[in-house]
Amino acid sequence: MTEGIRLRPVTEPDLDTLDEMFADPAQVGEFNWSGFSDPSPWRRRYAENRLLADDKSVLMIEAESATVGFVSWYRLQTGQAAHVFQFGISLLPPARGRGLGTATQSLLARYLFAQSPVHRIQAVTEVENVVEQRSLEKAGFVREAVLKEHTWRDGAWRDEVLYRMLRSELPA
Ligand SMILES: CC(C)(COP(=O)(O)OP(=O)(O)OC[C@H]1O[C@@H](n2cnc3c(N)ncnc32)[C@H](O)[C@@H]1OP(=O)(O)O)[C@@H](O)C(=O)NCCC(=O)NCCS
Which stretches make up the N-acetyltransferase domain (predicted)? Predict the structure, then answer.
């Protein structure tokens, strides 16, 4: 399912792609857009660590050698000695609806469990984002809870759905 797709580190030209995506709700996706934001933190973090750090990382998604979007994740501390990774994804509009979101989220799960001893990874998405919910489910994530009025976007508090994958739930 993940053939032809790869995750790769961000390069300097990708910073323009990321800026353009975050300046346009259609590009980044309406559910991932919460207004214009200062792009300089991306560039500062890129200069510091190429957007690859233990607590917060970004990788670009390539399908058949074309850049089609990005994934990001951060470390969410859940206890003194425990953390999970929470991730997000955005595909450019022409790449959506072809199974790439499912394949990428499968690949990311495999990558995170292989590259770190983390026990649980998770994603939240708005109740209205049925495409992402379906995509997560197809990638093997388990719908766990509805988080009432959990995020603010476009003039309203929005309910979100929490999806998880434990290390033991990674599909074979
Ligand atoms: C969300 C996203 C990553 C999903 O990736 P994708 O490649 O478009 O999705 P996939 O093709 O892998 O899977 C989508 C599934 O949703 C289904 N679907 C599409 N529209 C639907 C609808 N209106 N109602 C129900 N299901 C729908 C598709 O049929 C498909 O399921 P199927 O294979 O069983 O038929 C991608 O669309 C995207 O980047 N969107 C913009 C950003 C975003 O919303 N990110 C997530 C924010 S948390």
Answer: 5-168
